[in-house]
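Recap for those who missed Tuesday's class. We walked through two folding examples back to back. For each one, the amino acid string is listed first and its predicted structure tokens come directly after. Nothing is annotated here on purpose, so try labeling regions yourself before you check the end of the notes.
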Amino acid sequence: MQATVGDRVLIHGRAVGMAERTGEVVELRGHADDPLLVVRFDDGHEAIISPGTDCEILHVS
């Protein structure tokens, strides 16, 4: 899963009733083959995530 700065991230809820979260990739960290993403979520919260199966990268063109 390749992401670049500016791409959007959609994280699906992992339990019934859990809301989806969306945000923007603001920085890439770690190794090129297994990057960590610094994401600024739409509510203003920032977090470092390692994208998993519940995560979609939406490329901005």
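Example two. Treat it independently of the first, because the proteins are unrelated.
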Amino acid sequence: MHILLAEDETVTRLAARALLERAGHRVVAVEDGPTAVAAAAGNAFDLILMDLGLPGLPGDDAVRAIRRQPNGAAPRILMLTASATAQGRSRCDECGADGILTKPLRLDVLSTALDGRSPAASPATEPAFDEDAITTMREMLPAARAAELIGKAATVLRRHGLVLDEALAAGDMATAGAMAHKIAGVSGQYGCLALRRAARALEGELERPGADPARRASELAGILAPALEFLERRAAAGGS
């Protein structure tokens, strides 16, 4: 297929693009909402994968803009989101997209969605880390490139964690929620499942009126350190 991938987080975008291209698809990757709308206007895509939290124009508004274009009814559009919150799911449901995929992007789940079937439910218990995510990346990419991406993912997660802490200390719940969302997206793509769960829980808490995120934030902070160690070990080992 000819696919437009709209994802602002670089390490997530690169991993998803590699996965799609390895499966034989042609991919145009963009990192913000206005560019996604412009790309959709100038190309005949079979599928658009649209991140919800794009800069410049949120993903749900970008979908609405694409649907208003002369050819806007043609492409299938699936939202990509790391959000487990009711608000995030509602935004995806109401924008005119054809479905929702929860990050990380997986080819089997994408195939299921394109066939109109419901994806299998996540297991009731998940391990802290998904070694298969790293194995898949190692199979998709040369060892040096896989190691580079894994190392960059650790750097990105550390930076998001610092911004999250600063936002919480300043009482900036909007920025804190955005950082929790970003942490959930990156950690899922790179196999840090416990960190993804903690980030989703914090994002959900921050969405509540009168949120008191201290406990959830503490849980996330305690899980972030071992997640960074996991990624840095894999990067040092060449992605193996």
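Answers for example two:
The first strand starts at residue 2 and ends at 6.
The radius of gyration is 17 Å.
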